[in-house]
Amino acid sequence: MAGRDQLEEGESGVISDQRAEQAFEFLRDSTERIGAARGAYERAEIMRKRVRKRAFVGAEGSVAQREALAEINEEVAAADDQYINAVVAFETLRAKRDIETIALDVWRTESANRRRS
Fold first, then answer.
1. What is the separation of C-alpha 29 from the centre of its chain, rounded to a whole number of angstroms?
2. Distance separating the N- and C-terminal Cα atoms of the chain
3. pLDDT digits over 72-114, tens only?
4. Residue 50 burial by CB count (10 A; 0-12/13-18/19+): exposed, middle or buried?
5. What pLDDT score does 36 carry?
6. How confident is the model at residue 10 (pLDDT cuts 50, 70, 90)?
7. Using an 8 Å Cβ cutoff, are 20 and 103 in contact?
8. Nearest to 70 by CA among 60, 83, 84
9. pTM, whole model, 2 decimals?
10. What are the backbone angles phi and psi of residue 58, rounded to the nearest 5°?
């Protein structure tokens, strides 16, 4: 097979050693950032609920009216925006880490296949 011949000749497969090293370094270096992003996400969710409840309690009228007033409250909208931004930041970093993990998994598989050949 042409693919196996190439690997036996020392050429790398889909993921080079350098790319695998970059993936590992990204995972290592982003550990604290993913933790901080998750913390910000959780904090934003808590604050979002608090602000919404505060707006509801401070409003007057029936339950439906108070819920409606809470939903259009500017502080609630700002808390929702902060929550969305925190979710985007966390999910983006998590997706990047997932991609790097996949790259390392592919590299490991290729390395094992080269050793068996």
1. 14
2. 12
3. 999 999 999 999 999 999 999 999 999 999 999 999 999 888 8
4. exposed
5. 98
6. very low
7. yes
8. 60
9. 0.79
10. -80, -10
In tens, the pLDDT along 56-78 reads 999 999 999 999 999 999 999 99
DSSP the chain: -HHHHHHHTT---SS-HHHHHHHHHHHHHTHHHHHHHHHHHHHHHHHHHHHHHHHHHH--SSHHHHHHHHHH-HHHHHHHHHHHHHHHHHHHHHHHHHHHHHHHHHHHHHHHHHHH-
Number of other residues whose CB lies within 10 A of the CB of residue 38: 15
